[in-house]
């Protein structure tokens, strides 16, 4: 019998992946490795208000948590009924959260946040001849590559911190099972989670499956062997990657 799969997604984000794993015949244990606090500072709130009043051409959303953080701000209510800006999202889950919040999503990129670079055209200008402006609310832990690449492509990018993640100490049974081979695989869904895992003893038989290239790079940097990288950031793709590594049917 295959040992359970450890799901490390934050609280409130694990049910979908657990269900996908269960559907493929795996038992899954959800133990959140991170939690979030939403930001409320003036710069973020002012930027959201500016978005509502036509000061930005694009809203860039890279996670479901970003959507939740923005919706928690009072300035969210200022958004017009008719959306005047374009919205881009990373992954179907983020796009679905944005649509559920009432936004129209024009562009969806698969893979990591860096994949958005491929769907943005180069050197876009607004009607006034100036570079198009992008509002980029994001995790405080997000890498700078996407912002820098968009600037190099000719965009005016305003990055603001929307939420702050922090790691959560793990229960003793999770720590012991990781060390003893009590999990067949562990799914890491962010570089921060990868780094937290690197501080724990992980049995050599336990396979590490990660959500995208940034998490893979984080694993390499802390000498954790990666068994598989999901083809996109969806729960389905993560479960398929686990199934491929552990030798079960992905359908």
UniProtKB/TrEMBL annotation:
The protein's matches in InterPro entries, at most eight in alphabetical order, are given as:
4pyrrol_syn_uPrphyn_synt_sf, 4pyrrol_synth_uPrphyn_synth, UROS/Hem4
Q: Quick check: keyword Ribonucleoprotein in the entry?
A: no
Keyword flag Protein transport: no
Q: Which reaction does it catalyse?
A: hydroxymethylbilane = uroporphyrinogen III + H2O
Name the top EC class. lyase
Q: Which controlled-vocabulary keywords does the entry list?
A: Lyase, Porphyrin biosynthesis
Write the Enzyme Commission number(s) for this entry. 4.2.1.75
> Its annotated pathway?
Porphyrin-containing compound metabolism; protoporphyrin-IX biosynthesis; coproporphyrinogen-III from 5-aminolevulinate: step 3/4
Residues annotated as domain Tetrapyrrole biosynthesis uroporphyrinogen III synthase? 17-239
- Family to which the UniProt record says this protein belongs: Belongs to the uroporphyrinogen-III synthase family.
Function comment: Catalyzes cyclization of the linear tetrapyrrole, hydroxymethylbilane, to the macrocyclic uroporphyrinogen III.
What is this protein's record name? Uroporphyrinogen-III synthase
Organism lineage: Bacteria, Bacillati, Actinomycetota, Actinomycetes, Micrococcales
